[in-house]
Design a protein that fits this description.
The complex is a heterodimer of chains A (183) and B (676).
Chain A: E1 5-15, H1 25-33, E2 41-42, E3 49-54, E4 59-64, E5 79-81, E6 84-86, H2 126-130, E7 136-146, H3 149-165, H4 167-182
Antiparallel strand pairs in A: 1-7, 3-4, 5-6
Helix pairs in contact in A: 3-4
Chain B: E1 8-13, E2 18-23, H1 26-32, H2 36-46, E3 60-64, E4 78-83, E5 90-95, H3 99-106, E6 110-114, E7 121-126, E8 129-134, H4 143-154, E9 160-163, H5 166-169, E10 177-179, E11 182-184, H6 189-195, E12 198-204, E13 209-210, H7 214-233, H8 258-263, H9 279-292, E14 293-297, E15 307-311, E16 319-323, H10 326-333, H11 339-352, H12 358-371, H13 387-400, H14 404-408, H15 411-419, E17 430-431, E18 434-435, E19 441-443, H16 446-454, H17 474-482, H18 492-501, H19 516-536, H20 556-564, H21 570-590, E20 605-607, H22 610-624, H23 634-639, H24 643-651
Parallel strand pairs in B: 1-6, 7-12, 19-20
Antiparallel strand pairs in B: 1-2, 3-4, 3-6, 4-5, 7-8, 9-12, 10-11, 14-15, 15-16, 17-18
Classes of the chains: A alpha+beta (183), B alpha+beta (676).
Chain lengths: 183, 676
């Protein structure tokens, strides 16, 4: 089997919490960019980045909205960094049922950072451009990924399903689905 | 749809316990913009001069500015307006931070508070849900402590809270309203809030603010950010370091305090210490500051880091946030050479909710009186020997209005009169009953003379700005004017010529130069830029205060127009500002402000010229369209659409029927006839 190599651009925003000045300009410009029409309104509650601010403890953490998840985590983690305890879920990017972060305030629909995808492309996501404190910096890197990964992923996923439902069930279901597709 | 503003105010009557969301008249935006402008209109309409400042009838307004909550960089100011218990004139104290954008996102432009609650309460504004909640458990709590407790009990870490401390609860005349890294400190707005039984206002909002012309507006915002980046790399040459940058003075970031410590007066605004700033001192202070400052922080949507998180192990809260100059005010007033004292006492004073300008001066005044035998051990039992200890002693008594603290809690002007025994002579640094900047200078500065005399914002830093404070060194003048785009249209050449000609001595030097007409124009320009900021909510640190700021009279009309959809050009903005300035003056005239009140602190300058000063004041009043008492004439008011103001002033005998002259002290209308 010949593994196909594929080029992929990884977009990264590096967050330096020490440099954050807590101004929340990132929230402002994010929500403005994602309003419709563009920039027509502004509402940090709809931003896909939030700065967790707790001045009394000198904690400033910008967090980006990640994937939506339907399920809550089983546990809640707490981090202690340099003697400062960060609240549970502080660093989590998920839009999840356990909290209202990264959801449209009116509809509850999940929000997710899209790196300000637009046509034409921006040189950097808006939040990075508006962060003059340089707490946010944008990095792009090219990686080559082997297509093989996909079957691997599939295998892992199928295994999880087999664990859960049993091999017979999965086979039956697959057979039924492929019949349905052929029809 | 309303753009930039929400179009709603929240009316809260604490006597009745009623809360109402009221739509505002869009025409008022066109006439007064917002913030201070519309606040002044409300005060004029609702607070007649008979109202006692600490009575339920006084109105306390916490307003956002017109552009707060939009992406306009640094538009985050809250404009608190009420009648001051100290000056008994209009107080318009302001603060930065996050409160007023959050209020806009909750759907309101202003919170208007009247009445008095029978017990201590706080207000919780959560979008459309607004509650008056019991605050009896917050009695005596520090301002920052209160904010933390409220956020915890509401389980809403994103709520923005403004609160008073013990000083506000006890209606200390210079009690502040605190909001984390900012405070509305001047004029005793905290005292008025306390008199209403209101401990705090917490707000959380998740709605939009709309823009009329979004693409154009965003372009302006990006231009501002670009300019800021260039400007911070290019400090103005030929002025002290502290004046060379933008933002509010960068007290938290810079270590070099030569200018403040050697140019400003120590003690009760008495002595200069020209040789204070030695190399050893500089090193020691740097060590202290680096130890105490944990992080530089900003207000909402602003890249300037004018505030800092201060940590001090001896404070109960451990950390607090400091804004610029309070780092030095206590140190210098106490004649303490130790910067760490400043970081500690400012933290305690902030929890009490006390103004960092006035409080140290009042305490230094008390020490002077004690040293000169006017206050005795009877007034100050167990008064410590050490000045720093004395400051803590006085601070605790003032916040509690305990013993001598009850008298000192009214500020230098009132305290001097209550103490008597010659204490009045020690009241040398107030104007309009309010403590002023602690600067003692030599030669009269005619521009600052007019600003000090006629300013109604009680603090010179909220009137001055954009102009160098002294002649620039010859080599830097051409460079300064080269890209000085800031003067108003039509005045550029005149103002530039002034900068180029201005000398420390000789023909083109103070006090008899520049000519009065130019002085008037320079004063009006500086003051009006602040008035515009007070309406838009843009921070003076990016606009009216520093040299060559990002915002100016040429781009502000665009911000307002693109934001609101109104068509407001430079001329119209100037006219609105005229209107607001005259309305503020009319409110104060109705409250009794007259020419005799318009005096700078008596020893602000050593060299004074009473006749010349009187002439300057005459010229300025004339220039403003005010009469000899400094009251706007009927004609001036009518031209600005303020005919109803003129009518009332005439009815009350403040202006005469011909509208041109006032009737001070019982003179009857028509005394000064100009016709027949």
């Amino acid at each position: 089997m010949n593994a196909q190599k594929k080029k992929k651009t990884i977009k990264t925003i590096k967050i330096d919490v020490e440099k954050c000045n807590g101004c929340r300009a990132c929230e402002v410009i994010c929500s403005a960019f994602h309003s419709s029409p563009k920039y027509s309104s502004n509402n940090p509650a709809k931003a896909r980045i939030h700065v967790i601010c707790d001045a009394v403890r000198n904690i400033y953490v910008p967090v980006y909205a990640g994937e939506y998840t339907a399920a809550e985590c089983m546990g809640r983690d707490k981090y202690v960094i340099d003697g400062k305890e960060y609240d549970e879920c502080a660093f989590c990017r998920a839009s999840c049922p356990s909290r209202d972060r990264f959801k449209e305030p009116d509809t509850g629909l999940p929000l997710k950072c899209d790196m300000c995808e637009s046509d034409p492309d921006l040189k950097e996501p808006w939040c990075v451009q508006w962060c003059l404190a340089d707490a946010l910096t944008y990095e792009e890197r090219e990686v080559e990924e082997e297509e093989e990964e996909r079957p691997e992923e599939l295998e892992v996923g199928l295994e999880a399903l087999i664990d859960k439902y049993g091999l017979d069930n999965i086979v039956e279901t697959l057979a039924r689905l492929s019949e349905a597709k052929e029809e | 749809m309303r753009y930039a503003e929400t179009g709603y105010n929240l009316e809260v009557d604490l006597t009745k316990g009623s809360i109402e969301k009221v739509a505002t008249d869009p025409e008022l935006t066109e006439l007064h913009l917002g913030g201070l402008g519309t606040n002044a209109k409300i005060i004029w309409d609702r607070v007649p001069p008979e109202v006692e400042p600490l009575s339920p009838e006084n109105v306390l307004i916490f307003s956002s500015g017109l552009l707060c909550g939009t992406p306009a960089v640094g538009a985050n100011r809250t404009i608190a307006t009420t009648i001051s218990p100290q000056t008994r004139l209009l107080a318009f104290s302001m603060m930065g931070g996050f409160w007023s954008p959050e209020l806009k996102f909750a759907g309101y432009d202003k919170v208007i508070i009247t009445g008095k609650s029978p017990s201590l309460v706080y207000l919780w504004i959560n979008n459309d849900k607004v509650e008056i909640r019991d605050a009896s458990h917050l009695h005596g709590k520090g301002a920052l402590e209160t904010a933390t407790m409220i956020r915890e009990e509401l389980n809403e870490p994103r709520a923005q809270v403004l609160a008073i401390g013990l000083a506000g609860e006890n209606s200390v005349y210079y009690a502040s309203v605190e909001h984390g890294r900012s405070s509305a400190s001047r004029g005793g707005v905290g005292a008025v809030m306390g008199s209403k039984g209101l401990k705090a206002i917490a707000v959380r909002g998740t709605k939009e603010i709309n823009l009329a012309r979004p693409e154009e507006f965003l372009k302006l915002c990006n231009d501002i950010l670009d300019y800021i980046q260039v400007r911070v790399q290019n400090p103005i040459k030929g002025v002290p370091a502290i004046l060379s940058l933008i933002g509010s003075p960068q007290e938290m970031a810079i270590h070099d305090e030569k200018w403040h410590t050697t140019s400003f007066a120590w003690g009760h605004a008495r002595q200069r210490r020209k040789d204070f700033w030695t190399k050893e001192r500089a090193e020691e202070w740097k060590r202290t500051q680096d130890q105490r400052v944990e992080r530089l922080v900003s207000c909402f949507n602003c890249p300037m880091k004018c505030g800092a998180i201060i940590s001090h192990p001896e404070l109960p809260t451990h950390r607090y946030m400091m804004k610029c100059y309070s780092k030095l005010t206590y140190v210098m007033a106490a004649m303490a050479d130790d910067l760490d004292f400043g970081f500690k006492i400012a933290g305690i004073a902030q929890e009490y909710g006390l103004d960092g300008y006035t409080t140290p001066q009042v305490m230094a005044f008390a020490i002077e009186l004690y040293e000169d035998g006017i206050l005795t051990d009877e007034d100050l039992p167990d008064f410590p020997k050490d000045n720093k200890e004395r400051f803590y002693y006085l601070l605790h008594k003032i916040a509690r209005r305990e013993g001598i603290g009850d008298i000192l809690a009214d500020g230098v002007y009132w305290a001097a009169r209550r103490i008597g025994k010659g204490a009045e002579a020690y009241d040398h640094n107030t104007t309009k009953k309010h403590e002023q900047m602690v600067i003692k200078l030599g030669m009269l500065n005619p521009i600052y003379y007019i600003m000090y005399a006629t300013g109604e914002k009680m603090s010179i830093t909220q009137i001055e700005g954009q102009m160098p404070q002294a002649p620039l060194p010859k080599d830097y003048r051409e460079e300064f004017v080269k890209d000085w785009i800031h003067p108003p249209t039509g005045k550029e050449e005149k103002f530039k010529e002034f900068i180029l000609k201005w000398e420390p001595r000789g023909e083109y030097a103070f006090p008899f130069w520049p000519p009065p007409d130019l002085i008037c124009e320079l004063v009006e320009w500086q003051e009006y830029m602040h008035y515009i900021d007070d309406c838009t909510g843009i921070c003076a640190g990016l606009s009216s205060f520093p040299l060559k700021p990002p915002y100016h009279i040429h781009n502000l009309p665009l911000f307002i127009s693109y934001g609101t959809g109104l068509d407001i050009d430079e001329d119209r903005l100037w006219e609105i500002t005229h209107r607001n300035r005259n309305l503020v003056r009319a409110i104060n005239a109705r409250l009794g402000l007259r020419r005799e009140d318009e005096k700078p602190p008596e020893d602000h300058w050593k060299k004074r010229f009473p006749e010349y000063e009187a002439k300057l004041l005459d010229e300025y009043y004339k220039f403003k369209g005010w009469n000899k008492e400094g009251i706007p004439t009927k004609e001036t008011l009518e031209k600005l659409g303020l005919g109803y103001v003129a009518e009332e002033l005439i009815e009350r005998g403040v202006l005469t029927e011909d509208g041109d002259s006032s009737t001070p002290e019982g003179a009857s209308a028509g005394d000064k006839s100009t016709e027949q």
